[in-house]
Specification:
219 residues; VTT domain-containing protein
């Protein structure tokens, strides 16, 4: 999935941004973000990144930095980051466990996909030599998280080899997404423009991560 496709998805989601923004006025935003981030390892089209950015934009508005006015209830920036990061790791572990127990049926399904097979081979080699940075990069790439988590489980990688990198990936993605929304609102104002620019930056990072993940390793 390229940058253009990602931007189209972002624009489609932004058309309903006012409805999403209404959720940021209460504690339910944490539940919505957690469920979306947890499940998008299985359904990568879920706009979890957009939700995190929108909530972070509301948090910036609550600080008064963007508008000079402080709403009554806005997300806490630290709680939002921890919520997104924790849900990301839990989703990875669920996918990992399901793939690990998938047995021969899952192995045959993966074998039919050259992309999944190649991803498995690269992941195994990367983890074996301590190069788990691939897991972090894949977290930013569209559907990369799914390929890595399912691939780690299907190839029976040890959880102690996978989990630390999954945690680092989830935290890096959460911090980046929250920072985009928060500082975007401070610089551009807590408006749809700040959210749109932040979402575009998120998809640009995804496009860059996709390029790095697909690039052939140097000899």
């Amino acid at each position: 999935m390229g940058l253009a496709t990602g931007v189209k998805r972002g624009v489609a989601v932004l058309e309903g941004i006012e409805d999403v923004g209404a959720l940021t006025a209460g504690p339910w935003i944490y539940v919505v973000v957690a469920v979306s981030v947890l499940l998008d390892v299985f359904v990568p089209v879920l706009p979890s990144g957009v939700l995190v950015i929108t909530a972070a934009t509301a948090a910036a508005a609550g600080s008064g930095a963007a508008t000079g006015e402080v709403p009554g209830e806005v997300p806490d920036i630290l709680a939002l980051t921890l919520c997104a990061a924790t849900a990301s790791v839990l989703g990875d572990l669920v996918a990992y466990r399901l793939a690990r127990r998938g047995g021969a049926r899952l192995d045959r399904a993966i074998a039919r996909s050259r992309r999944l097979t190649a991803a498995q081979e690269r992941l195994g080699a990367a983890l074996a030599r301590g190069g788990g940075a691939l897991v972090v990069l894949a977290r930013f790439a569209p559907a990369g998280r799914s390929v890595v988590s399912l691939g780690a489980g299907a190839t029976h990688r040890r959880v102690r080899d996978f989990l630390p990198w999954s945690a680092l990936a989830g935290l890096a993605w959460a911090v980046y997404s929250v920072a985009l929304g928060y500082f975007g609102a401070q610089w551009l104002g807590a408006t749809w423009l700040a959210t749109a620019v932040s979402v575009a930056a998120l998809f640009a990072a995804g496009a860059g991560a996709t390029y790095l993940v697909r690039r052939e390793p140097s000899a």
